[in-house]
Amino acid sequence: MAKTVTFDELGPVGLICIDNPPVNAISHAVRVGLIDAIAQAEKKSSIKVLLIISGGELFSAGADISEFDRPQGDPSFQQLQTRVESCHVAVVAAIHGLALGGGLELAMACHYRLAHKNARLGMPEITLGIIPGAGATQRLPRLIGARAALDMIFSGKPISAPDAKAKGLVDELVEGDLRVAATDFCKRLLQEKRGPRPTCNRTVVDSLDEAEIAAALLPHARALKGRTTQYLVVEAIQASKLSFSQGIAIEAALAQRSLACRESLALRHVFFAERESGKLRGVASTEPPLSIRRIAIIGAGTMGSGIAMAFADAGVEVLIHDNDPTALARSRNIVQTSYESSVKRGRISREVADQRLQGIRSVTELAEAAQADLVIEAVFEDLELKKHVVSELDKLLPEERIIASNTSTLSVTELAHATKHPLRVLGLHFFVPAQASRLLEIVRTDETSPESLEAAFRVAKLLKKVAVVARDAFGFIGNRMMLDGYFREAEQLLLEGATPAQVDAALENFGFAMGPQRVSDLGGNDVGTKARIQLFKRESRPDPYFVIADRLTEMGWLGQKTGRGFYRYESGGREAIADPEVISLIEKLAEERGIKRREIGDEEIVERCLLSLINVGAMVLDEGIAARAADIDVVWTSGYGFPRHLGGPMFYADTLGLAQVLQRIRHHHERLGHYWRPAGLIERLGAEGLSFEQWDRSSASH
Ligand code: 3H9
After folding, report:
1. Ligand 1 centroid to 6 CA: how many Å?
2. What share of the chain is helix, strand, coil (3-state, %, to 5)?
3. For 230-267, how does the pLDDT look when each residue is reduced to its tens digit (9 = 90+)?
4. For a Cys-Cys bond, which of 138, 202, 489, 599 suits 142, CB 3.0-4.6 Å?
5. How many beta carbons lie within 10 A of that of residue 566, not counting itself?
């Protein structure tokens, strides 16, 4: 096995290099290697200073998350940090790329820290539902103060090296070759007779009262809603006022607690699920990968403009095509306004905004768009129109180029059959706003080639989006589950007696970013109605469920954009105000259907909406539309506002236990009728006492 840590002598400097691809995670093997290297160095009287540096593109992404399920063993992180900190010669960490979590904690145990000016340093543990457990809650306050430490740990986001220097986390910034500069720094330490400087010997200069803790939490309140880790972080940081040994013991106990909690299991599940869903499984491309330097978008509507920005933001040249010059002008305006607003908010510089805007070129001839490496059609959601566009593109584009459709409702297979080369056709389902949303559903037909899929994955990587493959079928993964399960049940609950505000509040308290009725009003009830018409037409099945939303559309109560929908909105505002007229309408619709309305509790709302989501999710899995339950979790946590800290609907079902899920679905089936028919997969797994996670594992092994 290749060594993950090497030791070399550069005169008086002992050079310890971590080399554990792909991200230099501090695995058990790395900890052993580091301890060995220090021991080796200490035996040599010629070594007067130690330098810890890493190979590859980053210093370290932190502890090896895949080892969290087992005990740390010897040496533990704490044993390693103590060994580094108590070393009798000075130890210097030289940081490039990223230093995250346990990687930064290792650097904090070193006596000095250098960072390349482009490096970033952060404590992302909270995003995994754990508290930093390798000394950060004790050393970080000693280096940058308790308040700044709290903020950095709550945010989970890395800070820049210059910021880290300003805060006192880094001693010097380096431009150019880090290894050379760090070796020079070590020699300077020797000349200046500066020896070990243990962080643990420092004292924390500031202390935190209740008001300061609340103020530190405030900017992160939304991201941390419903989470428990934040309280453990506060407890650990407060312990930094005690002696170092007392504080570190408290941190260890709290870290252990956080590792075992459900929140952490769920967040770690999503972390690995996202990485797994982004891999092309079971298909092998034989062609060299197509490089994506220029892309064309057909259709300059809101979606087309958003997709154009997503690519321009990634530095790809964009051609945007529309037959209608007015549409192109409107699109230019959308893009310009969006970049203006990013400049005003300080997200990007004016220079970058101008550069991106220039990277998007309007064209009116389809032949010009055909010069692109990949073409995405985003024209109006009309089957005949889309068929015409793809067949024209098929005639113009060389055979190896990919044609993608951004349809959310139509059959990608039918579109593919409108061309002579169905192998190169697939769906790229972007979500609104395309330039900011995280999810990209990649829709494959039975004929889509491995090369086309490979290109789609590269698009996702390029745009930094989370990719999930769905087979072409009604609503793909996300919309199928939403329409046949979650939203359908929300409408039924309204007819049976709940109010829109009650349904939304119950699901928002559960953890959804936004309740279903507020989502409908935001996206436009007409958009939902149109999509359902297309979808149900495609399936040739009736849509008996969305009577309220469809009636609102008929009445022109389309949501926020018209000031009325499931709620009222005053003068273009976004605040959803309960509307008694909507309640009367719901009562009338219920009466027409012979439904006797009753009091419905929040618990019933949450249970029914979630179980119907899970039940349809299991059908999606059984029908092969999604390959893994974990893929469904990725779709729902990254694209549909399902609370990430609950792991996604299928993970959540596993935590409830599938036998229990089955029993409750059967109960609703008996009471509410055919549309609650239990999914065959849940019946099978529930009967055998198995979980979706086990199902994923067993299907991966065949
Ligand atoms: C911690 O440090 C706890 C301590 O306080 C205390 C302990 C007691 N471990 O994301 P990518 C894998 S908690 C294991 O596709 P990118 C990843 O699964 C840790 N594996 O690349 C993937 O593997 P594969 C705190 C890891 O360039 C491969 O590396 N640290 C880890 O888009 C490439 O990853 C974090 O939370 C890890 N720590 O992004 C940082 N990290 O190819 C988590 C990555 O087999 N990591 N892998 O699928 C990240 O944020 C991103 O991976 C990073 C690179 C930004 C580093």
Report:
1. 22
2. 55, 10, 35
3. 999 999 999 999 999 999 999 999 999 999 899 999 99
4. 202
5. 29
